[in-house]
Amino acid sequence: MNYINFDRHEVFSNEILGKVSNMNNEVTTHLVMTDQSCFNDLTNKLAGLYDGYLYSDVLDYEFISQFVKDEVLAAKVWNLCQVINVLVQNFEEKVA
Predict the structure, then answer these.
(1) Which domain holds residue 53?
(2) How far apart are CA 9 and CA 43, in angstroms?
(3) pLDDT tens-digit series, residues 62-84
């Protein structure tokens, strides 16, 4: 399991934190509406964003689409995780 540990308080703006929260709610709603468990590898790894863990799996569209069958929502999750990855990389470069 590959991940990057980062300081969420330093990397996330209030806007990004709100987007993560909304994304988690949308994913949970989708899982409920499609009769899937809300307790799975994807939701666990998305919840890790709150604790400063960016798992490499959430940067993989195919991993996300295993759980999120709605292509628009899967793309939204993937895109936000890509943005977070860029923010983390940029922060690490600034402090290095």
Answers:
(1) 3-95
(2) 21
(3) 999 999 999 999 999 999 999 99
